[in-house]
Amino acid sequence: MKLTSAGESHGKGLIGIIENVPSNLIIDIEMINKNLFLRQSGYGRGDRQKIEKDSINIISGVRNRKTLGSPIAFMIENKDYFNWENIMSPQKSDETLNTVTKVRPGHADLTGLIKYNHTDARNILERASARETAVRVAAGGIAKCFLNSLNIEVEGFVKEICGITDNNNYEFAELKNSKKSDLFVLNAEAEKVMKDKIDTLKNEGDTAGGIVEIRVKGLKSGFGSCMQYDKKLDSKLAAAILSVQAAKGVEFGLGFNYSKTSGKYAHDEIFYNNNAFSRSTNNAGGIEGGMSNGEDIIIKAVMKPIPTLMSGLKTIDYISKKQCTADTERSDVTAVPAFEIIVESVVCLTVAEIVLQRLGGDNMEEIIKRWIQLP
Amino acid sequence: MKLTSAGESHGKGLIGIIENVPSNLIIDIEMINKNLFLRQSGYGRGDRQKIEKDSINIISGVRNRKTLGSPIAFMIENKDYFNWENIMSPQKSDETLNTVTKVRPGHADLTGLIKYNHTDARNILERASARETAVRVAAGGIAKCFLNSLNIEVEGFVKEICGITDNNNYEFAELKNSKKSDLFVLNAEAEKVMKDKIDTLKNEGDTAGGIVEIRVKGLKSGFGSCMQYDKKLDSKLAAAILSVQAAKGVEFGLGFNYSKTSGKYAHDEIFYNNNAFSRSTNNAGGIEGGMSNGEDIIIKAVMKPIPTLMSGLKTIDYISKKQCTADTERSDVTAVPAFEIIVESVVCLTVAEIVLQRLGGDNMEEIIKRWIQLP
Amino acid sequence: MKLTSAGESHGKGLIGIIENVPSNLIIDIEMINKNLFLRQSGYGRGDRQKIEKDSINIISGVRNRKTLGSPIAFMIENKDYFNWENIMSPQKSDETLNTVTKVRPGHADLTGLIKYNHTDARNILERASARETAVRVAAGGIAKCFLNSLNIEVEGFVKEICGITDNNNYEFAELKNSKKSDLFVLNAEAEKVMKDKIDTLKNEGDTAGGIVEIRVKGLKSGFGSCMQYDKKLDSKLAAAILSVQAAKGVEFGLGFNYSKTSGKYAHDEIFYNNNAFSRSTNNAGGIEGGMSNGEDIIIKAVMKPIPTLMSGLKTIDYISKKQCTADTERSDVTAVPAFEIIVESVVCLTVAEIVLQRLGGDNMEEIIKRWIQLP
Amino acid sequence: MKLTSAGESHGKGLIGIIENVPSNLIIDIEMINKNLFLRQSGYGRGDRQKIEKDSINIISGVRNRKTLGSPIAFMIENKDYFNWENIMSPQKSDETLNTVTKVRPGHADLTGLIKYNHTDARNILERASARETAVRVAAGGIAKCFLNSLNIEVEGFVKEICGITDNNNYEFAELKNSKKSDLFVLNAEAEKVMKDKIDTLKNEGDTAGGIVEIRVKGLKSGFGSCMQYDKKLDSKLAAAILSVQAAKGVEFGLGFNYSKTSGKYAHDEIFYNNNAFSRSTNNAGGIEGGMSNGEDIIIKAVMKPIPTLMSGLKTIDYISKKQCTADTERSDVTAVPAFEIIVESVVCLTVAEIVLQRLGGDNMEEIIKRWIQLP
């Protein structure tokens, strides 16, 4: 289940192609559209989000909501393209309109201009934009349909925004409630403080980052590899998560706290009950030796604050080389809930790919049979 | 510069093949052997390390210390193989000797046994062992020869062990001193406290993890991609680092602290001095939009405590299903310094690969010319 | 320049995404559409081709006909989708309409049904159809824009149809005339005999295959590899050509005639004139040791006869298991001219990819500079 | 089952690493060594072959002749390295000894020198040499062990040498006899004429190429893909075969004769007998729509004559730029039997890789179970 992604932020739309999807998988289009909506929502988002409500337009690989076994291509149209056609058209457009030259710190603008030998940062930001992540959410939704067919579940929540942390521990079943909050936060008290913080930041033209936690339940043991370094489950997940715009770190289980915990308290002892191996702790976050060990996979990822500030960051105009205030393209205070959905999506894609590699198979009937036969 | 790795811990030796190395690169064999030695050393290591002093035996791809342009194969012999031949020989060996069935928590043992349908965890641990990282250190040394030819430098140090942190800030030039300490720590005071802690843990049969910091200096801007999610610099680095045995997290620049810092204080503003763009801070750790921005790359990675404890963790015997104490294969208290060298090595490999992809080229003369021509 | 392809024959359309295209490449949309038209034309084609005139609809990666450096997504719409929507819609369609169960010999039908666990061969043939090659022609056109920027030219012609051969030798410059013939044949006499043959076959409800020759001019020496077996130029070209529907063989230079020619007459001796190495023959077809040697690349490929015959082949109904005559989906006698354009296109894509790997670079200005600097 | 290959012709040895080999596969070392011997033998070979008798030295991934599931590294030592150490040593060698500057037509010499910026063609030919194929034969042997476990058989024979053809048709079972001939030819009459021809060529200082045929029996239907162009069985096989030194063409089933056969006689009609689909012809060579169809896979490949002629080809001295006679490194008249074994080996590797991708699985018990469950 390999995703190829294309599309500019204000172009005709975003395109994704997913290869290696088995046949006879039922695609839950409503769930995918709901996830696309969740990616656009969240307390602290600006106004652009409200105009465009994304939805998936499947072009190939699916017939009557069931996969054929061929590559799934889909499009997420940019609903305001008609306003941008004269600026962005592949065929004929006016490149002197809406140029961006006051390169924005924290973005790809400056580096991209040099690398691709452009003079208008629009040519960079249109693709580097977080809008691209809509493709990953749609594709992650298709991966989720696959995982759910095997009773593998992926859920997540927002754990911290701008220094305000939800320190509660949650059962996996509770995580499903996170989407009831418009910050995807499970702790109502923490949520309230976060919202106050967001309001304050908004007034100051400032922005916030945060931390999300994602868990995978139902993945049997043995996914990944202890034999080849480039097939380790944690390596694959880390690559996927750090490929998300604005992600700056990832950890599994105890993560950076492993550095503060001695071996005696760090590792998950093994027991045997009811004819099955078990563990009473899960500090490893479900991954030992580069493989799933049958416990829940537990991942945390951090998002940096949105780098476009209404209060303006100092920068340089790329053409005049004069000091100035950075251009602004949008006005969100925070997008941590969106980040949560995106990270959840890339985790789904990564796990689906690894599951498919181990199971092989071309159609869902065969794959489910093999899944059941796995120890 | 793609590394393929093979070899068991007590087999004949470890083998690596590096592909895509340009011709006419001078290989500094002494530096590589020094790094192999550093991987074996460090305060808190047990005795096995002292027996075997690793060295690289280049088999192909190099003639008179200069690369040919062909794949470089090398071997790191296991010096005590003669003691293990009757147990491990590919040709003929006795599989009933030295079996491991008291599966060790924190290791690949239990999961591996099920996945590969073995009954002796030796068949798992021999490959899953951290000994495999010697291949990465040797290959990383070759990558370092390449990077140094372009004046790209990679250095690192140990920042934290078992909760004791060196909070100082260091210039890049200072990092080279870290190897003078047998904990690779720059702060003598912190080092002393760490050693005391290690001694205490040793007495208790306990172990420690820690945090290392790696920096890359001299990498020009534009390496990685803002256009394709799977070519981002941070994604590639994260994958490499999480492929190291015992790594449980990675962060870039401010990393998880981005969650506590509002946008105003999080981003690196852009200036223009002496005909060049510059920044006065480097919170981004040198990566914006999935690309190097010309500042130092700053990476932190965390290692979990060694999961083999002399005091013994509770586990199950895989055959009898009886509760027992885990088998022990070695007796280190901590291997964080080794982890530092390994992470440094995989960073070298990853950066070298990305540099080569952007520069193309088949021989060093051509590559150096293109490097100089890069903006 | 990696192409990902998607789309069913009677779905909404075909989709392609090309990654790794440098920025600032001018896209010649008219040339691409002309190639799409050529793929649909040719003496001996049936009627369906006449209804739909394919054209490329670029969705991303291009602004005002110049590449951005981001992935290029494009769509080739199926103009008669409105007739098929109730049968093929991803969202809601009636799977009992237009089913295909009389599986066609020479097609993917029977094998695909078993592999993907379908009961209607439409679910197979919609993707396995040669219509998919339109994506390759469009992508090949983009690759051709790139190659032409470096003065690399790719041309081809039809050499044989159903046993009638054009045995003339042609200069590269002459090849451009092949598209003036509606069989892409350069020899008017041979063309006439071929057309008579096609007419006869049509009357008999029979079909024909043929041989095409493709040449690449202007590729400098050293593309490919003599150091790694999986990077050889001929290996990559063979993989590309055998990935074309109905291709059953490929050869380079003398090809299978090498078996009849002794070494003295087989190899291209080397001379030195005007400060340059030269050869007076090109039996090797421009490839020695897995690399281009600077001479024209010469490739021949064979296409099998179209397996759908109006006269009907014997087969089995997949459901009833009764003997019957195969279903027919189209009525062409031969598609060798289309095959010529398709093979030309995949050769363009392959050469462009190999050129980009060796040159590296992100924008056309940089790439052209490096190309000129190559020896 | 991915092979990475390294090693120079007169270096310490050749190294291969095979990844993705399942655990618990029995390795038949004697069979592998026999194949290595067959690669070195054959009527028409020179004397060097007699000195060195290759054998596989497995270094990792195997214990007591059974795979562990880890990468298999192996070495084929160059038995005369001690004669070459002062010339070829990676550590310290004299690069002025045994230089090659009279670049040999038909080899990588000239192109390689320019590409890798060397002045001694030894630096090219040591790796470009056909000796590298020993690695593929050894790896192919391991792949064959795997295929045989699933009752998939791969056999082949020499069909033509220097224009003398064996036109007989053979049952699959007969092919096993080919290795009784020292030309791997099944037809004793043809063999005799070929040997006379070889003797004549030897007297004239000339060389010969030829055609080999390889077949795969027992591969079930559905391997490869009709959905993704880069996963087609014929594409993968063509890439593997054209990666063999001196290969210049490949065809499947009727191959280039498809161009001379009309559709009525070209395609394999489908029948149903004894509750199974069947075909009475196999013109397709077992591949339709990019997938195996259950019939024997039939492949032909052509080898060019050995380009090193004792009678000498005209060339240029790379340093002096003077006309001269090409350097000679060996003195074979033909190596078509070796080519047969090599092509057989790369076919084994390719089929094993494709089988593993479809079956998934980590250990042989699991894989065999899934194989049996396949329709």
How would you sum up this structure in a few lines?
Four copies of one chain form a homotetramer. Chain A is an alpha+beta fold. Helices cover 33% and strands 20% of the residues of chain A.
Please provide a written account of the structure.
Chain A has 375 residues and is α+β, with helices and mostly antiparallel strands. Chain A has one domain: Chorismate synthase AroC (Chorismate synthase, AroC fold, 4-Layer Sandwich). The first copy, chain A, contains 12 helices and 17 strands. Chain A has helices at residues 29-40, 48-51, 81-88, 109-116, 122-128, 133-149, 172-175, 188-203, 233-242, 263-266, 336-359, 364-373; strands at residues 2-6, 13-19, 57-58, 62-63, 66-67, 72-77, 153-161, 164-165, 210-217, 247-252, 270-273, 276-279, 287-288, 291-292, 297-303, 314-316, 323-325. In chain A, the strands form 6 sheets. In chain A, strands 8-7-9-15-10 form a 5-stranded antiparallel sheet. In chain A, a hairpin with a 6-residue loop joins strand 1 (2-6) and strand 2 (13-19). In chain A, helix 1 (29-40) runs antiparallel to helix 11 (336-359) and helix 6 (133-149) crosses helix 11 (336-359). The two termini of chain A are 23 Å apart. The mean pLDDT of chain A is 96. At the B-C interface, helix 11 and helix 12 of B face helix 11 and helix 12 of C. Strand 10 of chain A pairs antiparallel with strand 10 (247-252) of chain B, so a sheet runs across the interface.
